[in-house]
Amino acid sequence: MNHNRISAAPLFAICLLLICMACGRDKTLQFKTLTLAGDSCGDCPQVNITLPQARGKTRIAEAINTALREEVISMLTFEDSLEVTTLDQAVTSFRKGYEHIRKLYPDETPGWKAELFAEISYEDEHWVSIKLSAYTFTGGAHGYGSVRYLNFDKQKGSEVESWELFRNQKEFQKFAETRFRQQEQIPANQPINSTGFMFEDDRFTLPENIGLTAEGIKLYYNQYEVASYADGPIELTLPFGEVRRFLNYPAKS
Q1: Are residue 101 and residue 125 in the same domain, yes or no?
Q2: pLDDT band for position 238 (50/70/90)?
Q3: Hey, which of 175, 193, 199, 216 would disulfide with 239, CB 3.0 to 4.6 Å?
Q4: Which of 160, 176, 191 is the last residue of a domain?
Q5: pTM over 0.70
């Protein structure tokens, strides 16, 4: 009898175990691109939307798709009284808003425009972060561009607020202020607004938008948030090697 021969059943079990282990490590979500454009008529406002749409029926996929849809609806809906639940309805609302204003001011209403583009800025086994860039023009001297970071906890299967990224937000804020002052050349012994910034009460605060990127934690102050429109958005990127100790999950470098 040959005692060196390995039976088929144990070998199959070992292979199945290895496959399952590999699948367990591969927790990257699958996305498809969703594009939507407004009507192409000459008098219609220009609308272009590009979003990543998570595949599958998991909690995290549903959370991502719902959050993105709600963000776009919020940006495009012209009248609060209208019940808007889909992207198509949001585009229609934007168009009707333009038509309404044009009837009131036919000689003073330039064409409206809305461009929204979202992309995955970061993903690991714990987090997904999505950057939503938007530009809208509804009259006035200029349009308005903004960036919104949406963060998701894959373990919970839900969207999270920026403070939920951190174990201790107060300690992170102190660290971020030090780095912000270094980047913007603000002396440590001077008020945070001493060089022209417009932080409320002259105290450093974290931005509304904090996201994860391949380079690290991104602090993104939109126009008007802490500086004038002419200064544009203010960005600060903190490498993971410097901020990992503040995070609830140890994001990869």
Answers
A1: yes
A2: very high
A3: 216
A4: 160
A5: yes
CATH number at residue 217: 3.90.640.20
Q: Domain range holding 37?
A: 31-160
Contact between residue 45 and residue 113 where contact means Cβ atoms under 8 Å apart: yes
Nearest to 53 by CA among 68, 38, 42: 68
Say how far apart CA 74 and CA 142 lie, in whole Å: 20
pLDDT exceeds cutoff 60 at 239 = yes
The confidence score (pLDDT) of residue 13 equals 45
Residue 22 located in a structural domain = no
Q: Is 147 left (phi over 0), alpha (psi -120 to 50) or beta?
A: beta
Selected residue with higher pLDDT from 17 and 41:
41
- Tell whether 174 and 143 lie within a shared domain: no
What is the overall mean pLDDT for the chain?
Answer: 88
Residue 93, SS3? Answer: helix
> Residue 14: its pLDDT value, please?
44
Give the Å distances, CA to CA, from 176 to 153, 163, 210, 239: 22, 13, 12, 11
